[in-house]
Amino acid sequence: MMLLWPGIDSSSEVAIQKARQGQNSRRANNGLDTSTVEAKATLGTSAPEVKPKQPLFVVGDAEAKLSIASAMKLGYRFVLGGDGDAAVTNPDGRTYHIHRFLCDCPDKLGRGGSYTGRCKHEVWISQIRPCDMCGGFMLLGEFRTAFGETLRRFECDTCGNARDADLVRQERKALKEGQPQGEALTPEGRCAQAIVWLDAWGRTRYVWNVVTQSPELAPTMVRLLVDAGKDILAAQIAQRYRTGVKVA
């Protein structure tokens, strides 16, 4: 028995049924069904996979291009004028200058920095700072706490000084905003700190470490040693580094 709605006769109802059968037949011939279409629609509108953010470098990895360990292994030379102020010389002898963590190399000036707005020299300098205790270098490192956390800090292998990386980040933010450089981080301050440690521990290695890492500081070191009455050590450094400074 066929039920008819008002306004629809039997011939119209038959035509509608045939049209529906034709649509179902075409779907079957094409290998499609309603569930397949819905599934494809769902897949097509799904959110793209979000990949985890990769770090720019691996701390201490001498094979990672942007690691300071890799730069040193390749023969790059770093002369620090303070935290964020440096001259970086490549193995071919080309030198680029960084002031307040901004470099003058072609990558930075021409392209704005290829590594999230920084050039490789700026990334390297972010992993090194002067030691405010003995005047040497502090390098970025990682350590595991008693609670199983892995944290970063700057460490000096000469005197054992360590400084939390987050604290250094806040200090650097102030530098970029125009705050003055800490006196102990300047070239003369580094030499003075080394002499303080010489007086405290009676070991000349702190002084030698500074001029070995930064030979350009030798004239300043000689002058301060003479002022401190340490003429013998001053003469030794003056002779080795040919500073031209005469010591009585």
Q: How is the secondary structure organized here?
A:
Elements: H1 10-29, H2 34-44, H3 68-73, E1 77-82, E2 85-89, E3 95-99, E4 102-103, H4 106-111, H5 120-125, E5 128-130, E6 137-144, E7 150-155, E8 162-164, H6 165-176, H7 187-201, H8 205-213, H9 218-227, H10 231-241
Antiparallel strand pairs: 1-2, 2-3, 3-4, 5-6, 6-7, 7-8
Helix pairs in contact: 7-8, 7-9, 9-10
Mind explaining what this structure looks like?
The chain is an alpha+beta fold and 248 residues long. Among the domains are: 68-182, no CATH class; 186-241, no CATH class. The chain is 43% helix and 15% strand. It has helices at 10-29, 34-44, 68-73, 106-111, 120-125, 165-176, 187-201, 205-213, 218-227, 231-241, and strands at residues 77-82, 85-89, 95-99, 102-103, 128-130, 137-144, 150-155, 162-164. It has a four-stranded antiparallel β-sheet. The protein has a four-stranded antiparallel β-sheet with strand order 5-6-7-8. The protein is elongated, with a radius of gyration of 34 Å. The N and C termini lie far apart (126 Å).
Task: Give me some keywords for this one.
single chain; 248 residues; alpha+beta; four-stranded antiparallel sheet; 10 helices; 8 strands; elongated; disordered N terminus
How far apart the termini lie comes to: 126 Å
Poorly predicted residue ranges: 1-10
The description of the largest β-sheet is: 4 strands, antiparallel
Structural class label: alpha+beta
Strand percentage, roughly? Answer: 15-25%
**N-to-C order of helices and strands:** HHHEEEEHHEEEEHHHHH
Average pLDDT for all residues? 84
The number of E-state strands comes to 8
Using only C-alpha atoms, the radius of gyration works out to 34 Å
Spatial arrangement of strands, main beta sheet: 1-2-3-4
**Tally of DSSP helical segments:** 10
Give the fraction of residues assigned to helices. 40-55%
Seen as an oligomer or otherwise, the chain set is single chain
Quick one: overall form? elongated
